[in-house]
């Protein structure tokens, strides 16, 4: 699989309607082939949500905290 691609790409326009469940800011697709995730664009949040099998897991308990 080429680097930067998803096994199942997110549907077009999905990022425009998804929001961080913690702070309601937008999400940015900063995925790598081995670690697909959506990262919150909020200045105070920055949580990174995993994407498993092409499905965003938007649960705060599953999110990676910013470093």
Write a short abstract of this structure.
The chain is mainly β and 67 residues long. The protein has one helix spanning 14-17; strands spanning 27-29, 37-40, 48-52, 55-56.
Structural features:
mainly beta; 1 helix; four-stranded antiparallel sheet; globular; 67 residues; 6% helix; disordered N terminus
Structural overview:
This protein has 67 residues and is mostly beta strands. The protein has one domain. Helices cover 6% and strands 21% of the residues. The protein contains one helix and four strands; from the N terminus they run αββββ. It has one helix spanning 14-17; strands at residues 27-29, 37-40, 48-52, 55-56. Strands 1-2-3-4 form a four-stranded antiparallel beta sheet, with no helix packed on it. Strand 1 (27-29) and strand 2 (37-40) form a beta hairpin. It starts with 13 loop residues before the first helix and ends in an 11-residue tail after the last strand. Mean pLDDT is 83; it is low at 1-7.
Give the helices and strands, then pairings:
Elements: H1 14-17, E1 27-29, E2 37-40, E3 48-52, E4 55-56
Antiparallel strand pairs: 1-2, 2-3, 3-4
Summarize model confidence as the mean pLDDT: 83
Global outline = globular
In terms of structural class, how would the helical and strand content be classed? mainly beta
Strands, count: 4
Strand content: 15-25%
Radius of gyration: 11 Å
List unreliable stretches of 5+ residues.
1-7
Our measurement of the CA-to-CA distance between the termini, rounded to an integer number of angstroms, reads 28 Å
Question: How would you write the strand order of the largest sheet?
Answer: 1-2-3-4
Tally of individual domains: 1
User: Helix amount, in percent?
Assistant: under 10%
The description of the largest β-sheet is: 4 strands, antiparallel
The H/E string reads HEEEE
Number of helices: 1
